[in-house]
């Protein structure tokens, strides 16, 4: 019985140092066809084919494309801005998706802060999962809805007037987000909630059942409430250290989950960090959640980044939490209807206050800062922006690695100066033109 195979063009990358299985591998090649990474063995022996086109990486690192699971907007565009026409909103989303490629970001979760039902009803259909391309922009992995089931005490830049509780269970979530929530992860990839809000923790299993990754954040919860939320199915912490109780040695709050030793072991590896030297069990997936880190040097002190990473290395996920001011100079901008001020250092605050309201950092800069702050290896820094976010979303068979069968989304990095700099970007196997 003969097996059908594609007759389309085959590409081969040579002279690259490939990130494969947590190591930089030299003297190896990367093959891809139809936007997927392939194994060349069957080409040689079964179909007697070789590469149609050779791409010379010229000694650069070849790594998976970066994934940003929390980004509010960029280039003057806010994903929560619903007042334009549907056509204009779609055009704006496309502008951001294309612009992110410049920083090596080939997939992202557009983030919508706490909003009213009419906002979600209008913008979420436009943020559904869609494939990326070199001309169309980074892949959309589904939205990250941050609120409105969050704490007034830790609201940050979110509008308190739209906050809700979940006394009615999952029905409260359907009421808040509308029909899009029924699509599960196709529409909503990640949802940030505060576990101490009435009804929220009990509703987590229902959200997980729909394929939604539940993150806990913007919360004043105590450690017991945080651990219960994780036990119920929450697998991530939103922007660790920010919008949560400060660490206290007697009740460490949400931050203390990184040190948890008695959480029930996961029954599946999907959506959970791989075991590390600090895991409760070194032979099972880590029950502790992934945690987002904004590595802009403003939101979190480098020492805190280092402490978090060394306590739970396989859980670190780099995020920008970038807002509409990303890619633009200092000035005044908006986030979910709130007025913001961005200073000359790129720090964004609610206008007239000292309350941080998202960043202007790019994902490649986060990778560089993370390596500098923690003194980790280049591989560890890259995986915090590739493999780990893919594992968080349960899509590591498609994204986050250069494994056979995965999407041909990858980046050429120059590390000759000791810092990782983006040189070339490929989406679905096609090179992006800048």
TrEMBL record:
Q: What class of enzyme is it?
A: hydrolase
Example GO BP: N-acetylglucosamine catabolic process
Q: Which GO terms describe its molecular function?
A: metal ion binding; N-acetylglucosamine-6-phosphate deacetylase activity
Cofactor needs: a divalent metal cation
This entry's Enzyme Commission designation comes to 3.5.1.25
Family stated for the protein in its record? Belongs to the metallo-dependent hydrolases superfamily. NagA family.
Name of protein? N-acetylglucosamine-6-phosphate deacetylase
Provenance organism: Phycomyces blakesleeanus (strain ATCC 8743b / DSM 1359 / FGSC 10004 / NBRC 33097 / NRRL 1555)
Give the taxonomic lineage as stored in the record. Eukaryota, Fungi, Fungi incertae sedis, Mucoromycota, Mucoromycotina
């Amino acid at each position: 019985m003969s097996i059908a195979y594609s007759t389309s063009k085959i590409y081969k990358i040579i002279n690259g140092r490939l990130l494969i299985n947590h190591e930089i591998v030299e003297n190896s090649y990367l093959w891809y066809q139809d936007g997927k990474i392939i194994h060349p063995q069957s080409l040689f022996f079964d179909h007697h084919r070789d590469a149609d086109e050779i791409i010379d990486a010229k000694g650069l690192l070849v790594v998976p494309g970066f994934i940003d699971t929390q980004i509010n907007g960029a280039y003057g565009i806010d994903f929560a801005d619903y007042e334009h026409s549907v056509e204009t909103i779609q055009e704006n989303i496309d502008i951001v998706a294309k612009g992110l490629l410049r920083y090596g970001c080939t997939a992202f979760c557009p983030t919508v802060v706490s909003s009213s039902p009419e906002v979600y009803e209008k913008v979420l259909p436009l943020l559904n999962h869609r494939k990326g391309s070199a001309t169309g922009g980074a892949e959309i992995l589904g939205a990250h809805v941050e609120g409105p089931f969050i704490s007034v005490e830790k609201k940050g830049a979110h509008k308190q007037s739209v906050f809700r509780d979940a006394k009615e269970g999952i029905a409260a979530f359907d009421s808040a987000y509308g029909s899009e929530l029924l699509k599960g992860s196709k529409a909503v990839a990640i949802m940030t909630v505060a576990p101490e809000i009435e009804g929220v923790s009990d509703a987590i299993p229902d959200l997980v059942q729909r394929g939604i990754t539940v993150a806990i954040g913007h919360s004043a919860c105590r450690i017991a409430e945080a651990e219960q939320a994780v036990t119920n199915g929450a697998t991530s912490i939103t922007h660790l250290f920010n919008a949560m109780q400060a660490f206290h040695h007697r009740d460490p709050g949400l931050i203390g989950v990184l040190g948890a030793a008695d959480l029930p072991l996961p029954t599946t590896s999907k959506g959970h960090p791989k075991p590390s030297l600090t895991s409760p069990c070194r032979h099972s997936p880590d029950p502790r959640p992934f945690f987002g880190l904004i590595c802009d040097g403003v939101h979190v002190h480098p020492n805190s980044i280092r402490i978090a990473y060394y306590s739970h290395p396989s859980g670190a996920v780099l995020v920008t939490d970038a807002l509409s001011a990303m890619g633009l100079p200092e000035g005044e901008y908006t986030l979910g209807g709130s007025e913001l001020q961005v200073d000359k250092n790129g720090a964004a605050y609610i206008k007239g206050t000292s309350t941080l309201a998202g960043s202007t950092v790019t994902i490649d800069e986060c990778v560089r800062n993370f390596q500098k702050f923690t003194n980790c290896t280049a591989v560890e820094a890259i995986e915090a922006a590739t493999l780990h976010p893919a594992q968080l979303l349960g899509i590591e068979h498609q994204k986050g690695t250069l494994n056979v069968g995965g999407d041909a989304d990858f980046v050429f990095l120059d590390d000759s100066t000791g810092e990782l700099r983006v040189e070339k970007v490929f989406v679905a196997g096609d090179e992006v033109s800048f």
